[in-house]
Design brief:
By secondary structure, this protein is α+β, with helices and mostly antiparallel strands. 34% of the residues lie in helices and 25% in strands. The protein has a single domain, classed as Chloramphenicol acetyltransferase-like domain (Chloramphenicol Acetyltransferase, 2-Layer Sandwich).
Amino acid sequence: MIKKAMKKITFDNEHRRKHFEFFKNMNHPHFNICANVEITNFVKVLNKYQLPFTYSVVYAIAKTAKAIKEFRWRIIDGELFECENVRPSFTTYTEVADVFSFCDVSYDENYQTFIKMAAIKAAQMSKNPSFEDSEHHDYLFLSSIPWVSFTMFQHAMPFHPTDSIPRITWGKYFEEGDKVKMPISIQAHHAVVDGRHVGLYFQEIEKLFQDFETDIV
């Protein structure tokens, strides 16, 4: 994706511009918030229709990110641009080594279409993993830690220069009373995403998990 195909963002509000400039120039401008999100009904729906857990979570994460424009904003050469879509790049198992491979697939609003594409790409990456660089700016970097119900998570990332791609991780889900919850970590560039946007993200993805059946029928 190249800059001319993206919408350039210019702040009309002077305070918002100063906020952007202040955090943009920090050595480590990313911040991280972890929270336990209820997925009780989500798990019931997946079991009812025998649907894949991982690809469904990736779909939910990508759909929520696309709906909040700040999660589609990227800093490129010091300027701010808005991506039209998002491309979740999630970790997947490989048959050739005991470490993961990245697997990316462009988000599609149609749930069935998306999970089919994700399954095909993951199968390819399991046999032929790749760590090659890409020019896509619409990435969402996603990780799964299904062995741990973590309470904090920190991603590896370049500091010089830092990038503005959000990093979202989910962990092992667990029962709490009559509810099922899953930890989700969101790491974002503070010049682009504020705490209010992350709070909105958690609210919206929990709603999506609650009403997930409407997305698959």
